[in-house]
Each structure stands twice: as structure tokens, then as C-alpha cells.
Amino acid sequence: SVMSLPLQVCAQLCRRPCYCPWVPPRCPRGSPLVLDGCGCCKICARRLGEPCDFLHVCDQSQGLICDYSTASAGTGATCNFEDDEEGCEVNGRVYRDGEVFQPSCKLQCRCLDGGFTCIPLCQEDVRLPTPDCPYPRRVEIPGKCCPEWICEAQDQHLLRDARAVSPVLPYPCQEWGTEWSACSATCGVGFATRVSNQNRYCRLETQRRLCMVRPCPILPAAFPA
């Protein structure tokens, strides 16, 4: 009787011949077109955490199955990993727990307990004016991911400041800044970031500083010192 249950469901839900829309559906990013549970029409595969049933199948290419373990609680079946391993979804792609990935060239992230944490790969230091570079400016370089500091000529700098409302004075406007973010490392040395205009030209810049929540546990040495 257990083996005949899928056949009974198929007979009740699947009509023959197939009647499908002329235009296939437009799927969200990361959701491929697949055949429905009847093997009849193309539909958008359901992603991690989305509702599913016999007709609306999960994305098997991501290792997802229709999990009916919560169906008795009235929430219905949802797409989950076959081995019940936690994962996270970023930009339409599913990553396994503990997997390290780069959603862009500027970030490196790690999937952890259904969420993810990221650290920047580009330096976010603040370059102050110096005698050899009195007007530093960060610009995007074609072909490079991270912006770089350049030393702008004085005449270009004065021309741009002439169009500005505020004069070039130390802290010409009201000081403003966000709170420092949480430390990027749970143990050992990490860094915290904030956005602030507390600089010579009162411009919003991303600043960072070193931080340490607690020392990391000392692991036994693998090799003699």
C-alpha cells in the first residue's frame, strides 16, 4: 500500500495529456527551470526554505528535497537539505554550513548555522594628507577590484572644493559617525569598522581599528619550536 501511494497521488494530480503555458515562467536568480512532479510542464525549482509539494519540486542540483517532517505542525513541507545539514542562501545560491565563498571580489563570507558572516578583502584604511601627498583620494581603477589611493593635483583639488558649499577648514561641518561595528573575529585580533566624517575635509569615510574580544585558546604545537 505504501508503494501504491505515489501512483495514486500521480493519478489524481497529473492530467494527460499535458497542458502547459506557451511561455515558460521567468524564474528568480538561482532557481532553474525543471519539470514538475508529473514530468509534464516546466516550473521554477523551489529553493532552500521555500514551500514544496508533489508538483512543486525542490532544486535537486543544490541537494534539496521536499521535507515533510514539519507538515504535521501545519506549516507544510519545505525544501531542505537531504541530510538535514544547515545551509544559507546568498544571491540565489545555496551554500553548505561551514563553506567559505566570495559573493564578490571585495568580500569573503562563511556560511554558519543558517546565516553567514563576511569580511572585506579590500583595505579600508584612511590616508591622511602628508607633505608628499597633500590631497589623497580613493578612486576605482579599471580592471582592479579594490579602490586605490591617488595623490590628486592641487589645482584639481581647489577646483572641486570651489564647487562645494563648505569651505576647506578643519572640521568645517558638524561631526558625525556611526557606532563601531562588532569585532570581525570571535577570538584573537580582528577589526571593527565605522563610517565617520571626522577628518580634515569632513568627508564620509570608512574607518577601521583593531579589536580583540578574547584571546584564542592555545592549541598544542604540531611541530617542535
Automatic annotation (TrEMBL):
InterPro entries for this protein: CCN, Growth_fac_rcpt_cys_sf, IGFBP-like, Insulin_GF-bd_Cys-rich_CS, TSP1_CCN, TSP1_rpt, TSP1_rpt_sf, VWF_dom
Gene Ontology terms: cellular component: extracellular matrix; extracellular space; nucleus
One Pfam family cited in the UniProt record for this chain: TSP1_CCN
Boundaries of every VWFC domain copy: 86-152
Top-rank taxon, per record: Eukaryota
Record flagged with keyword Zinc-finger: no
Domain IGFBP N-terminal: 6-82
Name of the protein in its database record: CCN family member 5
